[in-house]
Amino acid sequence: MLQLGEFNTLTILRETDPGLFLGDEEENEVLLPHRYKPETYEIGDKIEVFLYLDNEERPIATTDEPYLTLNTFGYLRCSDVNDYGAFMDWGLVKQLFVPFKEQARPMKTGNWYIVYLYLDEKTNRLVGSSKTNKYLSNDNITIEKFDEVDILVTHITEQGANVIINGIHKGLIFVGDIFEDIRSGDRMKAYIKKVRDDKKIDVVLQPPGYRSIEPNANYILDELKAAGGFLPFHDKTDPETIKNELGLSKKSFKKAVGSLYKDKQIIIKEDGIELI
To answer: What is the tally of structural domains in the chain?
Structure first.
């Protein structure tokens, strides 16, 4: 069965004036226009393509890679707004439609939004929605403390950075746990700091607790080497200075320094730390 909004591995059946016709095991066929055909191919070859609807609402194949696939989230730029809704650049020739009813707030041309791609069962069309909360749930949490996860930053508030976890859960990186520049739309690895009784999930960008000592120690070693073997940071250094210069909290910095000192890799001086 041909899967709209997803990558499909299909067989090249024949070549025609419009392009290559591809098919699946159930004898369904779809056109791959000439502009997307590979440089070399033979009838019977397998090819991976993305399927969506063209301007006449017919299934069409492309080798272009969209910025998101079915039932996933992406950070997209609004290209146009008309009387029916907004149109988003999602990496394909035909833009993704987001109707007004699926906009969390009115979209504006040129602005960027977190968008979820779904298949409208009534029209069988691929549609976008910026009402992301209805596609996320913390009812049945599939992660636990210390797990490494994939996150998408949705928006920044005074409280911290709101994130989507593994494409299914909502989480928050508290402002006190942010030691680097992050923005809406950023994708990165993160770690679960705590799953609360009220189903809220705390996230951090570095392994929490004792698991963060070793990575931070290696980071400090790299910084020492890059600085010629000495860094002017110590117990009395202002936490904001350490955060701005190293991207670490003072607590994480002290743990890393303690680990390096214990392993006899550094000397702790009054005015900083020195590589042995």
So the answer is: 4
